[in-house]
Amino acid sequence: MARAIWTGTSTFGLLNVPVKLYSAVSSKAIRFRELRGEDGSRVRHKRVAEADGEEVAYEDLVKGYEISPEQFVILSREELESLDPKRSKAIEIEDFVDLDQIDPIYFNQPYYLGPAPGAERAYALLAEAMGEQRKVAIARFVLRNRESLCAIRAGDGILTLATMRFADEVVPASQLEGLLGEEPETPPREQEVEMAKQLIDSLSTDFDPGSYEDEYRAELLALIERKAAGEDVLAAKAEAPKATKAPDLMAALEESLAAIKGDELSGGAERQAKRKPAAKKPAAKKAPAKAKSKSRAKSAK
Q: What is the reported pLDDT for 251?
């Protein structure tokens, strides 16, 4: 049973809702141990002082900010924790915005927010009101001695919280030299754009997170099992796909569309069998916040 990693109060005007924070993700990454190659002995890392090579105990560590080469301002844990104690246990809601206004690049780590004992009614009130308004709360709180910006969303009576990056942490595209490469000699032709749109339509479907699996992890686990069984696991490297050259764009689009149509007619393509036709919504109406929030959460990961 997962335990709360943070407890505090969500403040909304004069409404204070005691809440608990739970991690919304569980990493499935395969982790390796570092071993000495000659005998498989475990390798351990130690904290060693550069001045004399002596090992440093965890309780003797302090934080230092380098203001010039080898010149540090040292701050103790107590000094850092005293920076703003009145905000250390409060999620202060500052604004309510539409989810569409937030670029997914700002989302960071997702969490669940649950009510503390005795706060269930106030929590349900906030979740229901936010859900009906389809608004996202932008708030601040301190997690692990660091102030975080966050977005709180409501869905199915549950509040979720995603930490966000501050604006000055996101690198503007204008500062990335060569991001778009060289200017193409000729812009995409209208016929090519229309063909590309047809290809997008053919591949469009409703988002189902369960249909996407970590294929690399599955292959790595299988490789480990074969290796443990004494099999030879070396295989030829797969060739990286080659970029489609400009003169071949139209041919590649036509071939892609023909392949998809052929799969749909034969019914033999596994991906096509899994796919559901996308529901077309009137242009004037917005998609439900719940559906969009799932999509946003995926982008932010």
A: 83
Read off the pLDDT of residues 163-180 as tens digits, 9 standing for 90 and up: 999 999 999 888 888 888
The answer to whether 10 and 113 have CB atoms below 8 angstroms apart is yes
Q: Which two tokens stand for residue 113?
A: 């927010």
Planar angle of CA 92, 151, 95, nearest 5 degrees: 55
- Domains of the chain: residue spans and CATH: 6-25+82-169 (2.40.290.10)
Q: Give per-residue burial for 113-130: e unless 16+ CB within 10 Å, then b.
A: bbbbeebeebbeebbeeb
What is the distance between the alpha carbons of residues 25 and 9, in angstroms, rounded to a whole number? 22
| Closest CA relative to residue 149, chosen from 186, 97, 94, 204 | 94
pLDDT of residue 153: 96
Separation of alpha carbons 255 and 253, rounded Å: 5
pLDDT recorded at residue 87: 63
Least-confidence region, from 34-38, 63-67, 181-185: 181-185
Mean pLDDT estimate for the chain: 82
Tell me the C-alpha distance between 295 and 285, whole Å: 18
